[in-house]
Amino acid sequence: MSSLEMLSLAGNRFSGKLPHLSNTSKIEFLDLSGNAFSGNISPHIGTLPKSMQLSLSKNKLTCEIPEALSSCKNKFSGEVPTKL
Questions:
Q1: Strands 29-31, 53-55: parallel, antiparallel or unpaired by DSSP?
Q2: Domain ranges of the chain
Q3: Which residue from 9, 3, 37 is spatially nearest to 23, judged by alpha carbons?
Q4: Between the N and C ends of the chain, which has fewer C-beta atoms within 10 Å?
């Protein structure tokens, strides 16, 4: 799958921790919205390509918002970083 550019796994009721998003350098669009992912977002999210569109909305994420992400519809706790 070295040429995979778009991947949508939206609305599949996947649960558990978010998968580690390594080896995604060629993916331009990754949609993980509408599932039941919970827990933390890895700080490594900031190492993803800046041009990648990543959707994590409508999950059950409960961690602080990493500075690398903008707002989305989740159950984040903590303060919104001032850099957003």
A1: parallel
A2: 6-61
A3: 3
A4: N
